[in-house]
């Protein structure tokens, strides 16, 4: 029976962000990529709603001893879930995670209808702006065209900013891996080093010429670091 691997995307991320990881690990792991319900209507704190969604997802699928990997907001959700359910998580992997400090590069409200602005902001995510393909920019642009989705994005970003995880990190005994871009402008390298300091059993891997989404921008190096960590 394959071990479970849960991949959690960021605020503007999606299932396609994890293609390189899926291709590399799908033969050996039972991979789950839940679509985080960022745009749902609810009365809870937005981040708390996402953590509870993950709790229900794990319960419904009977997942045990899972490897959980989170990028950006997904990393934040993974931290809170692992802290609450250490028995469910065998390994925690964070990449560009929020929870300590993050430069919110979209401002207080995403500019609806301004395609070039969205292109610029998506490119800002990466060290190599060519990673911001027309398809990726169009996907984000379509999301920001919806007023309700824009509101949910802002609410979720603010919820994440309010939720400072430094106090809970020392309590997480799960072996952890931090894979970070040296050119991450959203969660800069000093954030990675602070995570490394606060997590008791953490390994830090810095990838040169790489921005906020290493699994997309440096998939081979990302998978190599992950492979080595999981093989220990």
Summarize the structure.
This protein has 232 residues and is α/β, with parallel strands linked by helices. 42% of the residues lie in helices and 15% in strands. The protein has a single domain, classed as Alpha/Beta hydrolase fold, catalytic domain (Rossmann fold, 3-Layer(aba) Sandwich), CATH 3.40.50.
Strand-helix topology:
Elements: E1 3-8, H1 19-25, E2 29-32, H2 46-60, E3 66-71, H3 73-84, E4 89-95, H4 115-124, H5 134-144, H6 147-162, E5 176-181, H7 189-198, E6 202-207, H8 214-217, H9 219-231
Parallel strand pairs: 1-2, 1-3, 3-4, 4-5, 5-6
Helix pairs in contact: 2-3, 4-5
For the record, what is the CATH homologous superfamily label?
Answer: Alpha/Beta hydrolase fold, catalytic domain
How many beta strands in the DSSP annotation?
6
Q: Give the proportion of residues in helices.
A: 40-55%
- Supply the number of helical segments: 9
The residue-averaged pLDDT reads 93
Task: Output the strand order for the largest sheet.
Answer: 2-1-3-4-5-6
Protein name: Pimeloyl-ACP methyl ester carboxylesterase
InterPro entries: AB_hydrolase_1, AB_hydrolase_fold, AB_hydrolase_sf
Describe this structure in words.
- 42% of the residues lie in helices and 15% in strands.
- The chain is an alpha/beta fold.
- The protein has one domain: 3-Layer(aba) Sandwich (Rossmann fold).
- Strands 2-1-3-4-5-6 form a 6-stranded parallel beta sheet, with helices on both faces.
- Strand 3, helix 3 (73-84) and strand 4 (89-95) form a beta-alpha-beta unit.
- The chain is globular, with a radius of gyration of 16 Å.
